[in-house]
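job 3f2a | input accepted
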Amino acid sequence: MYSLILKDLLIQKKTLGFILGYSILLLFVFNSPDLAEMVYVMGAMVSSYILILGACAYEGKGGSEIVLNSFPLRRKDVVRARYFSVWVFMFLSLVIFGLGGAIMKGLGLPFPLRYLNWVDVVGVAVSSLLLTSLYLPFYFKFGYIQARLFNAFMFLLFFFVPAYVMNYYQENSTKEWFRQTIFFLDNHPAWLIGGLIIVPFLMLLMSYLLSVKFYQAREF
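job 3f2a | predicted structure (220 res):
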């Protein structure tokens, strides 16, 4: 299993270089008070998702799935390795963005406006686990080519949802029920953080079980 995770890393050396440049660009572009709070979460989440898609794409386009299934490997191990890769990619993305931001601030550059913090780490973990929990069952069921429809849907979601959320906030931020909801969340951080941690883990577990079932039944 460890060799499969290492394979996912080695075949994406160029992608890691791209993410390094992407982190510098994003930390520069998001250099404003309104965007500074989301720069690390958005950047590291997108980067980890790019890496997981890259790993799936190399196997799908190169036909290495057929080769893997000719080896004495259990399909369950192939699926498990890909799910462990999610954690590795997420860690690497956080290191790249966190270290990049620290170095820039250490050099006295005007960007980014702040350092990486634990809230960013939780945000990246939650968003990355939820996203890959949805994607990987599609990939193991249909393969990379067909699963691109899911990616197209997610692209539209990323494009339209932030604008909708911002408009919704502006329209409802002065309403009493909305302020009471924000007050409740602000005063129950343990409950909120616990929920944010538990839900993605449960989704990841269900996603893994579905992926194993789909991949074991898939024909090549």
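job 3f2a | The mean pLDDT is 82.
job 3f2a | closed
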